[in-house]
Design brief:
The complex is a heterodimer of chains A (about 300) and B (about 170). Chain A has helices at about 5-20, 25-35, 35-75, 75-80, 130-140, and strands at about 160-165, 165-170, 170-175, 180-185, 190-195, 200, 205-215, 215-230, 235-240, 245-250, 250-265, 270-280, 285-290, 290-295, 300-305. In chain A, helix 2 packs across helix 3. Chain A has a 15-stranded mixed beta sheet that branches. With about 300 residues, chain A is α+β, with helices and mostly antiparallel strands. With about 170 residues, chain B is mostly helical. Chain B has helices at about 5-15, 15-25, 30-45, 55-75, 85-95, 100-115, 115-130, 135-140, 145-165. Chain B is globular and about 55 Å long. Classes of the chains: A alpha+beta (about 300), B mainly alpha (about 170). At the A-B interface, helix 1, helix 2 and helix 3 of A face helix 2, helix 3, helix 5, helix 6 and helix 7 of B.
Chain lengths: ~300, ~170
């Protein structure tokens, strides 16, 4: 059956959103966008809705994650169960604070479920005794920034999985184990908080390990890409890669490990060579390979072979 | 209000549209946060030249398109973009989206609440767990086409609901 032109345009738009459009279909969509302002408007609306849905669901997920972590960090609230009488068929959540409308969804290892409209908390409702903290966290979320935990009394000395899905040997985990290789799965990055306030955002399919070097934490980037934030007033954050180590304090930077295939001139054989892209957004980082050091400053990008 | 505060207020007000625009003009998969960060840095550098008589969103999209096209010329690993004509058409279409993002977000929340549980679960798989259509099809033991069609219809239904809600006189 031949599609109507409007249906064809809608189909191309939906395929573009899902990354399913072929090059030919993208070419067809480009021509339609340039030629028909209504198609362009429909496309803009659809991409805005797509972005809004992602923002809505990611924000709710992060709210639940933070709430869970706050409940675990605050023993006086963690022991109290919420009144589950009005939640037909649902067992009470052990971490929900009494009288609180800010109820996280069920355990992280379970399939996340959306609360019903009657039970879904208003994220702007303050909770007695913790209003400022949660409002501040929600403001940070609204700004689209990653949330991290600064060092201090009572903070965890273990890496914290703040958002995203991480697997170890194919099994999803709730906490990032020290000394084990893990992989970021799904399409969203994984945000991991480190003791001392550093945090990293690893892109999907990235592989890394978090190791201890005495009292210090070292990140080993094995494959993929990550954004790193190293706070001020803390020992330098160190990331080990196959091409060398990167250390930084009071900086924000990106590391990307790729491989390129080069043709050997004499043998015509292909050789896969790793490359490390270091991009610094703020501060500066020091790349060290075998004692030879190079500083990369804010606004610069260096490639290492 | 100092310049940085002014810039951040303007940027956060149009952040969702700017992210949507950047995502829409890139042909394949990309790191949206990375590109947005680069664009945000460029906007800050160009902010002294921003004409406050002009809507910030439109100005930001123009700078974003230029930045991404220039980046493509320098860095080969940059994701490919739509044609300049298509980018221009999409940018003008975003200019025509009149509703503030905040109002649309409220309308979307209302419309999501009206959906049946199964539909919300599908959206959770797609947008919260960020699974691809293929991964969702495997998880639900459905065909790829069935998942794609269902998601497409869901989004169309949500868009209709949002538009109706925004044009409703008692809510405007």
């Amino acid at each position: 059956m031949t599609m109507l032109p409007q249906d064809r345009a809608d189909d191309l738009i939906q395929k573009k959103l899902e990354g399913l459009a072929t090059e030919a279909e993208l070419g067809e969509l480009e021509l339609l966008l340039a030629a028909d302002s209504q198609v362009a408007l429909d496309f803009a609306e659809a991409t805005r809705l797509h972005a809004s849905l992602a923002a809505h669901f990611q924000k709710q997920y992060k709210i639940d994650q933070i709430s869970q972590l706050l409940n675990e960090a605050d023993p006086s609230h963690a022991a109290t169960e919420a009144n589950a009488g009005d939640r037909a068929g649902e067992p009470a959540h052990p971490a929900a604070p009494a009288g609180s409308t800010f109820v996280p969804r069920r355990g992280l290892a379970e399939e996340p479920r959306r609360n019903s409209p009657a039970r879904r908390p208003n994220p702007l409702t303050p909770i007695a005794g913790r209003a400022n903290w949660i409002v501040a966290a929600l403001l940070v979320l609204a700004a689209g920034a990653a949330v991290w935990f600064s060092g201090g009394k009572g903070d965890s000395e273990e890496p914290q999985l703040i958002s995203g899905i991480v697997t170890v040997s194919g099994n999803a985990v709730r906490t990032v184990p020290v000394g084990a290789l893990f992989e970021v799965t799904g399409r969203e990055e994984a945000v991991i908080g480190l003791p001392g306030g550093a945090h990293l955002e690893l892109a999907a399919t990235s592989k890394a390990a978090i190791l201890r070097d005495g009292q210090k934490i070292v990140v080993q980037l094995v494959a993929g890409k990550g954004q790193f934030f190293a706070p001020a007033d803390q020992p330098a954050l160190r990331i080990e890669t196959p091409l060398g180590s990167v250390s930084a304090a009071d900086s924000r930077f990106t590391l990307e490990l790729t491989t390129t295939t080069t043709q050997e001139i004499l043998t015509t054989e292909s050789r896969r060579s790793p490359q490390l892209f270091v991009t610094v957004a703020s501060g500066s980082v020091t790349f060290d390979r075998g004692g030879v050091k190079l500083t990369v400053n804010a606004g610069e990008e260096q490639v290492f072979f | 209000m100092d310049r940085q505060e002014e810039y951040l207020k303007l940027l956060f007000a149009c952040e969702l549209d700017l992210r949507a625009f950047i995502g829409s003009i890139v042909r394949g998969s990309h790191d949206g946060d990375d590109l947005f960060q680069e664009v945000a840095l460029t906007l800050w550098k160009e902010f002294p030249r921003y004409d406050r008589a002009r809507p910030f969103g439109a100005w930001a999209r123009g700078i974003a398109a230029m930045k991404l096209m220039q980046r493509g010329d320098r860095v080969k690993r940059q994701p490919a973009l739509l044609s300049p004509e298509a980018i221009d058409a999409v940018s003008r279409a975003f200019d025509r989206l009149e509703t503030p993002v905040s109002r649309e977000a409220q309308a979307l929340e209302h419309c999501l609440d009206q959906l049946p549980e199964k539909s919300r679960q599908l959206l959770t798989l797609r947008y919260e767990r960020s699974l691809s259509i293929e991964q969702i099809a495997r998880e639900l033991q459905a065909t790829l086409d069935a998942v794609y069609q269902t998601l497409s219809r869901l989004r169309a239904r949500l868009q209709d609901c949002v538009n109706r809600r925004l044009s409703s006189p008692e809510l405007s």
